[in-house]
Amino acid sequence: MIAVSRCLIGENCTYAGKNNLCKEIKELYDQGLALPLCPEVLGGLPIPRTPCEVTGEKVIDQKGIDRTKEYTQGAKIALDKCLEKNIKIAVLKAKSPSCGKNHIYDGTFSHQLVEGDGIFVQMLKEKGIAVNQGKGKNANARPLSEIYASLEARVKTDRVSEEYSKEGRTSFGKDEEKSTVKDDKTAKSKTEADSKVDKADDDLDK
Hints:
Structural class: alpha/beta
């Protein structure tokens, strides 16, 4: 399962009370493979709401009201939901003060972008959760095949790690040479699986 911005599955939860439907993300959700989240709403902000942008370490709305508390609280709630589901990948709305990755609006409400991450993305990165950007209407996120490939690679890695741990527990007291060969083979498989995960995550970040 992956985490996605609620607006990307077609739910009207943006600041304007609209959505940013991405058909591929909606397809994942319909298959039960996506967890939709909106940190702003989870933090107590209404739909619709006054637009906000990141200014330094704070999130300020267009009326000049500090909304840092709501954004931070909502991001923490969303992060907890991700951790509960053991989510490793998130596909989020680009440029958002919560969900934007690498580039967000500069705080002047003039549609100017600066380098930086949204509040939720910052928290996800700290936990090692890979973030991909879904750009919304008339623009697809990365192909489903690539997202599935990353998920599959991670699942395989988890299974290999579990098998590797079992090998370590059950081989104690057995023939040392035989055990070493098994461990070497399992470790090699784990390394190969880790490499696939790294490559998949690099592809998602492009």
